Please model this.
Amino acid sequence: MSSSLLSRRSALALLGSAPLLCGTGYAATPQTLRIGIMSGEDEDVWHVVAQNAAKAGLTLKLTPFSDYNAPNEALYEHELDANAFQHGPFLKAQNDANNFHIVPVGNTYFAPIGLYSSRWHSLADLPQNAKIGVPNDPSNEGRALLLLQTLGLIKLAVDAGLTPTALDITENPRNITVKELDAGVVGRTLTDLDAAVINTEWAKKSGIDLEKQRIGQESLQNNPYVCFIAVNEADKNAPWVAPLVEAFHQPNVRQILLDVYHGAIVPAWS
Model:
C-alpha cells in the first residue's frame, strides 16, 4: 500500500490534518517523528509531549484519527513512526488479524472501565435477576465480563482468556441477564438497565457522573488494558524511541492528563 493510504481514508480517519507523507513512503528521520493519536483530549496531551520532545531535538508531527483501525494500518505501512491510542488486547487482535508486527515501547495511561448504575448506589444493592449491559465488540465485551467476574457477580470458564462471551459464564448466582449492546449505545440505555459496564469515553459522552454513578471499577494493578506508545518491531531499538517515551513520562504530561480527562484516566508510568 502506498503513501496515499491516509489521504484515501481522510474523510473517515482524519480530522482536518494533512496527509502524513509527501510521496516517500519511508520512515521520517529520527529528528522528525510522525505520531498517530486519537482526536479529542489526546491532542491536548500530545501538544505538551511535543514541547517536551523538542527539548530532546525531536519534532513531532501529530495526526489525529477518529477510526481506531487506521493508526495501526498507517504505522505498519510506515506512514507513521509511532502511534499512541491502544491497549494490549486490541493490538494483539490487530497483529493477529493483519499480520502486523507492531510492539509497545512505553506506557501512557489507563482508562478503567466501570460498572455504572442510575438505580442502585452500590454493588450490594444489585438485585436478583438484574439486567446488566455490556459492549458487544469482542475486546470490550470480554473486558466487561472479566470485570463482572472480578466484582464477584459471575464466574467465567478458566480457558476463556481475555475475550470471553456470555456463553463462557459458568456460574451466575444472581441470575443476571447480560445485555450485549453497541459500545456507543450502552451508556445511553443505562436508565433502562440495572447497571452497565461502560468505557470511560462513552460514559462521559452519555452524561454519566463517573464518580456518583460508578459502583465498580477495574484496578490498574497487572491490568492488560494499559495504553501505550507503539512502533513497528523493526524500530523498537531506534535511537529516537527512548527520548520519545521520556517526553511522555514527564510531570507536565501527568498533569495535563488529569486536567483534560477530569480524573477519569490514570497516568500509567512510575
In short: Confidence is low (pLDDT under 50) at residues 1-27.
